[in-house]
Amino acid sequence: MARILKFPLLGAWIASALSLPAMAIQLTPPETPAETVLESYHGTFVSDPYRWLEDTGTPSVRAWFDAQNTFARETLAALPGRAALHARLTELNGADTRVYDVRYGGDRLFYMKRGPTDDQFKLYWRQGTGGDERLLVDPEQLGRPGAPAAIVMMAPSPNGKRLAYGVSIGGSEDTTLHVLDVDSGRAVGAPIPRADLSELSWRFDSAALYFNQLRERRDGDDPTEKMRDSRAIARTFTAESVVDRAVFGRDLAPAITVSRDDIPNIRVSAVSSYAIAIVKHGDANELTLYAAPLMMLKDASTPWRKVVDRTQGVVNFDLRGEYLYLMTSENAPRYQVVRWRLGAPAEYRLAQAEVVLPPGERIVRELHVAKDALYVGESEAGYSKLRRLEFNVKTAPRAAPKSGKTARAKAGPASLPKTAGVARGTDVVLPLAGTIHEIAVDPVRPGALLRMSGWTQSPALYAVDGKSGAVSRTALIPPSRADFSRIAASLVRVKSHDGVDVPLSIVYAKDAPRDGRAPLLLTAYGAYGISLEPGFRPSQLAFLERGGVIAIAHVRGGGELGKDWHLGGQKGTKPNTWRDLIACAEYLVRERWTSPERLAISGGSAGGITVGNALVDRPDLFRAVVAEVGIHDALRAELTANGPPNIEEFGSVETPEGFSALLAMSSYHRVDDGVVYPATLITTGYNDPRVEPWEPGKMAARLQAASASVGARGRPVLLRVDFDAGHGIGNTRRQVVDEVTDVYSFVLWQLGDPAFQP
Predict the structure, then answer these.
(1) What's the rounded Cα separation, in Å, for the pair 353 and 265?
(2) DSSP structure class, residue 41
(3) Do residues 238 and 244 touch, judged by C-beta distance below 8 A?
(4) 37 shares its domain with 150
(5) Residue 16: helix, strand or coil by DSSP?
(6) If I label 535, which of 50, 134, 652, 736 is the partner at 20 to 30 A Cα–Cα?
(7) Which domain holds residue 127?
(8) Domain-located, residue 617
(9) Structurally, how many domains does the chain consist of?
(10) Final residue of a domain: which of 189, 224, 240?
């Protein structure tokens, strides 16, 4: 592909890197030699001085990361206010009982929960919302020193008797799937390795589980092969055996097109006689869907029929009877809901689908089929709304028998009238202005459960009555002990570089003066159509109560304003993402919320593109930058295990236009020598499967060599490494508290808080 020229490695360095002098604040980082590689992309040569850091499995590279981490940790540990801040954050993180991933399984409720004294989320169940709580899986018993375990997915069977859950170790996200008999706690069948990309789904009779499995890797495989050629698998359970068989994927059906990089899964419902095969195209949100009669779902002989192509903008769906309810951006940039009759003739097309919820001013976020209604989550002016569209039928679904294997198999899924329509929707009156983080429903049970919170309102689980639509709080999540009564939040609109209005949320103490002196931490993301929505974070109180202000820029590339907002910060339009962030920063200075010397920005993962390029474009505007597990070398990211799926979002160097877009967003290649850059804290997890540690590592090395503000000006570039973590998925409470302490300590130090000055 590309021509590569290498220049020799400069000098011996390991000994000097590991022999750091003992002093209170060490501002000069360990030395990093450059081995310049010139690579030609479509006739353009690009310099890469730290290519050698990509070989993270070698002792010399590991030693470099260890030296950088030691330098960063010692620098931060020497800050006077860090110990007190750590104690306060430990207190705040123990103020809440956190619950998420609430699921129905028959009459049982399953959920992930971390109590005030727990280091990790554990899996519990109870009868309904008011029964006695029972611990089912404790991941703290599954890990080992230096490699904590985390539950990263779970799904109860429709009768609640079995539960599938996935475990990963040390932040690797390499997932092993387990199935438990809930009553006995015993394993059912052997563990299932390589289930990283699974969307778990159970058949109506709880006797078959569908999941995705990566193929077994071979010695010598390129890293980009890891996620390729995965397949959808069915595990069936009988009294005599447990059997796995591939049911959907590449080369499994002659009439089906599934590429090597596509991710296949199967979804079924207790109230439909159809199976839906999902083809996810890397990290793209738009899906291709196939349908087949559930009882004919076997192997390559399954009569799949394509019902949705990725070009039709479908990003979410649910099943009821012979109807497929679809959330689509086709002719609706803020999305609409339509339904497609699966039993229609072959010539039936999605364009003929019945519109259930037409496009409007609100952004449609999600849809869920319950027994009584279609529950549609929306957002308006940055806050969640919930629409309840009752099914316009008099006959209730026929539920399968509660017990008896033969009876259940004969009954099949709960049946529904073929003409089941949908009545006009009504808004559910929500208890707070905030975010619906999840909606839990059961297709054979009326009503829904909502987990909600706001910037200043702690999380709670609410029940929506299936008859009246009334909302009541359950006791499952107790109120937080963190006191946000003196904290306020507001939403404003900021003109960006091209005149587009960008939403900006601001969280602050009610009595905060607007004199331009407040330390302000501005966060942004802007990728994959993901929205930064209002949410309660007790740790923020530690920053706010010191006179700080927290702001969230809802930049393009995210999904806050629909599909067009996402496309406005993707691939060739990606510069809008960091220019929106810059516009928000300028607004905060102009309106005297802060000043450049008191302003820090932060972003994680794909948000590393956002903050890294804002740093390069406007180093004068920020005193400090925090990039957590961030993407910085966009040209080389596609060669990693997680690279091929991300081509859908960022592009590929294989095309001239893709290369140009990636070079424009690659902050590592845009750093210039001799510039006074802001102080920068870069973090990584050494087991990160999404953004490999060499990306943050190379950015840190480049900034340390290039910045004119390192050392004498007191604006260091620090690389903080967690060797027991990955991308942050499944981090323990201790890891979270330690990292937030270091981030806030660094920011408060650089923004002039007297308690943090060495």
Answers:
(1) 24
(2) E
(3) no
(4) no
(5) helix
(6) 134
(7) 98-189
(8) yes
(9) 2
(10) 189
Rounded Cα gap, residues 6 and 449, in angstroms: 59
Residue 41 and residue 635: Cα distance in Å, rounded?
10
* 113 and 129 belong to one structural domain: yes
**For residue 75, what are its two tokens?**
């620098």
Q: Which of 379, 374, 383 is nearest to 355 (CA)?
A: 374
Whether 408 is in a domain gets the answer: no
Cα–Cα separations (whole angstroms), residue 265 to 201, 287, 292, 638, 642: 9, 11, 13, 24, 18
Determine the 3-state secondary structure of 206 from DSSP: coil
Backbone angles phi, psi at 566, to 5 degrees: -65, -50
Q: Are residues 538 and 495 in the same domain?
A: yes
**Residues 386, 426: Cα–Cα separation, whole Å:** 9
22, 147: one domain: no
Whether residue 321 is contained in a domain is answered as: no
In eight-state DSSP terms, residue 271 is T
CATH number of the structural domain spanning residue 617:
3.40.50.1820
Position 411 in a domain: no
Contact between 664 and 654 under an 8 Å Cβ cutoff? The reply is: no
Model confidence over 706-752: pLDDT tens digits? Answer: 999 886 568 999 999 999 999 999 899 999 999 999 999 999 999 99
* Cβ atoms of 413 and 271 closer than 8 Å: yes
Q: What is the pLDDT of residues 165-197, one digit of tens each?
A: 999 999 999 999 999 999 999 999 999 999 999
Q: Measured between alpha carbons, how far is 443 from 396 in angstroms, rounded to an integer? A: 11
The 10s digit of each residue's pLDDT in 694-708 is: 999 999 999 999 999
User: What pTM did the predictor assign?
Assistant: 0.92
CA distances from 592 to 549, 599, 611 (A): 12, 11, 22
Whether residues 170 and 22 fall in one domain: no
Beta strand pairing call for 98-105 and 108-114: antiparallel
Supply 94's token pair. Answer: 């123990």
How many Cα atoms within 13 Å fall on the side-chain side of residue 198? 31
The residues, ordered by sequence, that sit 6+ positions from 21 with a Cβ below 8 Å of its Cβ are none
Residue type, 270: A
- Strand-pair category, 520-524 with 599-604: parallel
Tokens of 430: 């929500």
User: Per-residue pLDDT for 404 more than 50?
Assistant: no
Torsion (CA) 102, 286, 391, 357 in degrees, nearest 10: 120
DSSP H/E element including 202: strand 201-202
Nearest in space to 579 (alpha carbons), one of 496, 670, 672, 491:
496
Q: Of 130, 163, 189, at which residue does a domain stop? A: 189
Give helix 694-706 / helix 607-617 axis angle, nearest 10°: 10
Assess whether 500 and 599 both reside in one domain: yes
Q: Distances in Å between the alpha carbon of 338 and those of 310, 313, 326, 700?
A: 16, 12, 5, 48
Identity at 492, one-letter amino acid code: V
- By DSSP bridging, strand 98-105 and strand 44-48 are unpaired
Shared domain for 570 and 625, answered yes or no, is yes
- The 10 Å Cβ neighbour count of residue 1 is 9
Q: Do residues 510 and 602 both lie within one domain?
A: yes
Residue with tokens 């995965």, as numbered in its chain: 230
User: For residues 263 and 214, what is the distance between their CA atoms, to the nearest angstrom?
Assistant: 9
- State the chain's maximal CA–CA distance in angstroms: 81
Q: How would you classify the pairing of strands 679-685 and 717-722? A: parallel
Kindly provide the b/e burial profile for residues 655-669, where b requires at least 16 CB atoms within 10 angstroms of the residue's own CB: eeebbbbbbbbbbbb
Residue type, 702: R
